[in-house]
Amino acid sequence: MIRIYTQTENGISRTVGLEEQDYRKGDIFWIDLLTPSAAELHYAEELCSIEMPTKDEMREIEATSRLYCEDGGRFMTTTVLSRVETDEPMIAEISFILKQRVLITIRHTDSYSFRVFSHQLLRMPGTNRDLVFIGLLETLVDRQADVLERFGADLDVLSKKIFGTHRVRRKEKSEDPDTEDLRDALVELGRVGDLITRQRDALVNLLRLITYAGNEESCTEAHTGLYAALRPVSRDVNSLSEYASFLSNKINFMLDAVLGLINIEQNDIVKVFTIMSVVFLPPTLIASVFGMNFDYIPFLHTGWGVWLSLGLMLASAIVPLIVFKLKRFI
Question: Where is it mainly found (predicted)?
Fold first, then answer.
């Protein structure tokens, strides 16, 4: 799909598709390509006299493949975390191309930021290529900030679930361990941690793009004064990167805490078996003594010998329990 934005006397207009395209080149300031067809790519290439990067080229991780100048145009590709609200979030590549007075964006995944900015753009009386480029970057940064805020809220909920539930359980002396809840929290922490790692990588790529776009000497294109306009966006991205690092450290702390609590739960189970083995050890010894196959055993031929042996076994089991209770082992 291709969306062409033009400046007219009545304001900004948008045309979807290639039908009835008779606009002059000077009127067009933004061409948005969403999963474009061959005809749409050819139209943009003919209009701007450049060769568009392919989907595979947009996925290249080398800096020289993502940030470069060619045919008088400045090519910049970044990644963003997309579809966060779904069960299958993904990293999406977005390419920005600055050529003369036209901005070309290429993407293969629908973006919430682009939808929001396009609605805002259509209500503006006028604009130009650089303002659209800066506005798109600001909208992308705002969206990434919202995503990080959501991750922070999810971590707060997990923190209450991990530490609050375990503290209450200890206070009430419940014998039912909550190991399953801790395991569920461990899985959720792994999911959020993976998303934050992807988000940090996307922010790094976005910061590189902003730095490259603001560098007036990075291309033979005429100076456009983007450096000063992009400085606030760069500061916002840096602050988001620091916040993402904070969330990453918080996840590492919570992971260690969950693993420690799971070990405590398992140690409590092992402690129960240890106490039971110690409690039943003296009765087992007494039963073994009276069960020996000898001709003479004390109290063997008395009528109350069996009751005495049972009493000794019971007492030998009660005494360790009392000692453990006084020592607060149980």
Answer: membrane
